[in-house]
């Protein structure tokens, strides 16, 4: 048994830590894999025979490539692809203008005072579903599907997974909203929680731009052990495993999900909380369903840099907008916009 340390290329947040550890721990030769977000590395202990470290890194990279990660002996220097902004900026601005026009027409509710509207929750869900940090959910459903496909069961597990995910986000979102009512956070508590949501969205957006590596350390997530327990369910072949797995994704370490959960706490209403989280989950459904049925991997596409930078700019817009509206609602600043 020997221990090797490899640098992980493509790691962004704790969800990536969960995914890389889970996939590598399933490799027969490996007895233990421990990933580090701070160092963007993974420490692997196992029996690889007479293989050289370069050979081991290549073999393990093949395991992680479907999820957008590769291993190397030396740390690769981070290069910010500023050229992607040439397309990302106009696309993001066009999307934001369209969204504001729809809001002005009353088709979607962007932000009302300090509240996150259902339109906002849906769009954030769409962005979250294609974020590299949500690759843990995609990797989860693909791995589960592979296990059931061996038995010739391809469609039912997918359907159960998405039903479980939508139901859990609706019901547990409502529970969080009701919990907020029980605790009655008050105006100060609501301000603090809404402020946290805005800051989390700003951090998530900056991370999606992939130009400031230091920002990845700021991203809040749930304890990684929760994600590991959830990800471990994929190896079970029980009939109800896909349903349970879909329900469990509510607890996965995703910053987007957590920002919505924090906001839901401020609603103080089971129905409002359920609708906010349910709408968010509906936003994630199209891409996750496409991923589960067709093995889509947006992070592997040539245009992924432009896509993620565009998504990052839109999320930053939501973060700034929420921050401004929170400050306006508390009287700290005067309204800057008429919507």
UniProtKB/TrEMBL annotation:
Transmembrane segments: 87-106, 118-142, 163-183, 189-215, 236-258, 270-291, 312-337
UniProt xrefs under Pfam families: DsbD_2, HMA
Coiled coil: none
CDD domains attached to this UniProt entry: HMA
Residue ranges of every copy of the HMA domain listed in the record: 2-72
Name assigned to this protein: HMA domain-containing protein
This protein's UniProt keywords: Membrane, Transmembrane, Transmembrane helix
